[in-house]
Specification:
The protein is 60% helix and 0% strand. The protein has one domain. The longest helix is centred in the C-terminal third of the chain and has 33 residues. It has 205 residues and is mostly helical. It is globular and about 50 Å long.
């Protein structure tokens, strides 16, 4: 997870160093198989409000949220990689990416409302909020990276070389970093919450 963010930021730094004499090659030398991407059908949902959540339910909820995030993140990767390489997405690819993005935002919003509008078991509120904030910030970083790359490409095509501003992304490093991820994983281990997120082993039961 952290590796993808670092790689994308590296791409931005390379682009920001481009001179006016350099031309960005937008030809598609390698075609990513985005047509084979399957959009995950399951995200976290809950209609509960002002309810007392027991430990078994919150464990399942955290697992569902993180697993859904992982599946959506993997599904978006081929499209983001194409944009990192300055390749244009066709209509079908844009529609797929838009659906994945909407599901990702919905997954984040649903989980955030769930943990804030209900009473969680002792020892879960702080860590559930940490998980929510981390995953949401991680996703927002990629939304912003995609927008920055898109704007940069448009400027280059017009012969304009604007300075890339990644201040907002850097500010999110207080939430999305190895230290916070380690705290989350330690919590997952402590509570025996099995998830495929963070590259962890996941056993389907």
């Amino acid at each position: 997870m952290m590796r993808r963010i670092l790689f994308s930021c590296f791409i931005l730094f390379i682009l920001s160093a481009c001179s006016q004499e350099e031309n960005i090659d937008t030809t598609e030398d390698e075609v990513l198989h985005t047509q084979n991407v399957e959009i995950p059908s399951k995200i976290f949902t809950s209609e509960k409000e002002n309810s007392v959540i027991d430990e078994e339910e919150i464990k399942v909820s955290i697992k569902t949220y993180l697993d859904s995030h992982e599946e959506l993140d993997k599904a978006s990767y081929p499209f983001q990689e194409m944009m990192d390489e300055e390749k244009e997405l066709n209509k079908n690819e844009l529609e797929k990416l838009a659906k994945i993005t909407n599901l990702t935002k919905e997954n984040d919003e649903n989980f955030s409302k769930y943990i804030l509008n209900n009473t969680l078991p002792e020892g879960y509120q702080k860590e559930a909020e940490r998980i929510s904030q981390y995953i949401t910030a991680y996703n927002e970083i990629f939304y912003e990276l995609d927008e920055i790359l898109s704007n940069f490409t448009e400027d280059v095509n017009k012969g304009v070389f604007s300075k890339i501003n990644i201040e907002s992304i850097i500010n999110k490093s207080d939430v999305v970093n190895g230290r916070e991820q380690k705290k989350i994983e330690e919590f997952l281990d402590k509570k025996n919450i099995d998830t495929k997120a963070f590259g962890r082993k996941h056993n389907i039961k």
